[in-house]
Design goal:
497 residues; alpha+beta; C8orf32 fold; 2 domains; 15-stranded mixed sheet; 10 helices; 24 strands; globular
Length: 497
């Protein structure tokens, strides 16, 4: 049960943000169309529009891509809209994410005091919330005006914090104006100015995109490497953008070769991986934790020793400690809705009268392994509440439901994304993108893998390499998008003692 759609989810979010990093020409109403390519194959389209009316500027970016996962096509659509005054004061936003069979909509209204009233709608159920508008953060029109002010003089550098409605966070962006280059636009060669944008989020890596803009500051081409795949957006006619797509099989791109077959991974006490970046300039960021220890070598290589932590016997729950990170892992989120009645009911069914936290998490893991009946790859990315209702999904759906049920009974839990070894999955052997859960028991984070348990693998083992840890929200997958496809595994040493 491999993690394939982390890439697709975050691809859409990043592409939706890519269009606002540069300016568009100022008119009362305009729409521009782009074709989206992966590895040279057309997989979808992007539409950018800007409308000025009644003292408001409404900017919308929509991205739609269709990819194949083991011959199962899935279309993923992300639409972000920002509403501002003509002098770029934020008024509101909307984000709609259609991830396969699941749809989530978030709307926000910003008042004069900087308070944001939000409504999240999923499966027809509304949830209300608030947040404070971050200081110094702009939206699409604010960035457009800043870019107009800075111009296209070679060597110009500036930075901005841009709010993304899709992930409800500000993305720090550094922009540098480069030289003019002759760029091929679907057979038409045009002299365009190169603009490099470096986007980063707290505690995550960087994603660098390159745009080519004309003298009117209109983007004509955007290049963005994601998870080792070259993604391009090209300005084009409406007819071509919305026209027929090619078939792009993503599974081939989500596997990392193993230097040798790994026998009886479940029985290994620990496995040590020697990892090196594919490019000398790349800096690999792999997290250490209770289940894996990471050693960064001076030459850029990384040694990762994975040794699954055992749950302490007799540990109680709910968690009564004061550690801020662990407390955060007990709270409900947009995708891990541990406060929903249906999640609480499932958790109580799974745990029963158990008082031991280690036993409780194993019961939850086994319950989720049985509960999800349809191991469907047609789900783009569903929340725990959606999984509870549909009983379908792949590894991410297993992971978010497991985490939500742990949190519902007061056991801290996080969603982990990375790669895991499989002998044979759809004709592939090696390390494929995957998601699982870790729960805090006693004084350690303990790995859980209800997806592997459902498939007869047994659960979490030393064949897992974690690349990112979070609350299950799309923004938590930023690091794996930046890391996946950027490294190779040179050697593997298995310890079965």
């Amino acid at each position: 049960m491999l993690k394939r759609h982390i890439f697709s989810v975050y691809l859409v979010l990043l592409l939706a943000g890519a269009g606002v990093t540069q300016a568009q020409a100022s008119t009362s109403s305009e729409t521009e169309y782009f074709a989206v390519f992966m590895e040279g194959r057309k997989v979808g389209f992007a539409i950018q529009s800007r409308v000025v009316a009644e003292g408001k500027v409404t900017t919308t970016q929509k991205v739609s891509i269709t990819i194949s996962r083991v011959d199962v096509p899935i279309t993923i659509v992300s639409t972000e809209t920002s509403i501002e005054t003509t002098d770029a004061k934020p008024l509101g936003f909307e984000a709609v994410q259609e991830l396969g069979a699941m749809t989530m909509k978030v709307t926000g209204v910003v008042d004069k005091q900087g308070k944001v009233d939000m409504t999240t709608t999923s499966m027809g159920i509304e949830q209300k919330g608030t947040l404070e508008w971050p200081n110094g953060v702009m939206m699409a029109e604010g960035l457009r005006l800043l870019t107009l002010k800075k111009g296209l003089k070679r060597g110009t550098e500036y930075s901005a914090k841009v709010f993304s409605a899709g992930i409800l966070q500000a993305i720090g962006t550094q922009i540098r104006i480069g030289p003019k280059r002759n760029i091929n636009l679907l057979g038409r060669v045009v002299a365009l100015t190169e603009v490099t944008s470096t986007c980063n989020m707290p505690e995550s890596g960087e994603i660098i995109s390159t745009s080519y803009v004309d003298d009117d500051l209109r983007e004509q081409k955007i290049i963005m490497p994601i998870a080792g795949i070259q993604v391009e957006m090209l300005a084009c006619s409406k007819e071509f953008a919305l026209g027929e797509n090619d078939v792009f099989e993503i599974i081939d791109k989500m596997f990392i070769a193993s230097p040798k077959p790994l026998q009886d991974v479940r029985k290994a006490k620990s496995i040590t991986y020697h990892i090196s970046p594919k490019q000398e300039t790349e800096n690999l960021t792999i997290p250490s934790g209770d289940n894996q220890k990471v050693q960064q070598l001076q030459d850029g290589r990384v040694i990762v020793m994975v040794e699954p932590a055992a749950a302490a016997k007799g540990a109680k729950f709910p968690y009564k400690g004061t550690d801020s990170i662990i407390l955060q892992a007990t709270k409900p989120t947009r995708f891990v809705q541990s406060d929903r009645k249906e999640i609480i009911d499932l958790a109580n069914r799974a745990v029963g009268n158990t008082k031991d936290a280690g036993e409780a998490i194993r019961k939850i893991e086994a319950f989720v392994a049985r509960y999800i009946e349809n191991k469907s790859m047609s789900v783009g990315y569903a929340s725990a509440a959606e999984v509870a209702a549909s009983k379908q999904g792949d590894c991410t759906e297993f992971a978010v439901l497991t985490a939500a049920m742990c949190r519902a009974v007061g056991i801290p839990a996080q969603v982990v994304t990375g790669v895991a070894y499989v002998d044979d999955w759809a004709g592939h052997r090696g390390f494929g993108g995957h998601a699982w859960t870790q729960a805090y028991v006693g004084d350690k984070w303990v790995g859980l893998d209800s997806a592997f348990k459902s498939a007869g693998r047994g659960g979490y083992d030393a064949g897992h390499i974690a690349l990112a840890v979070g609350n299950g929200n799309p923004e938590d997958f930023f690091e794996i998008v930046n890391t996946m496809g950027q490294f190779k595994i040179d050697t593997v040493d298995i310890n079965k003692d």
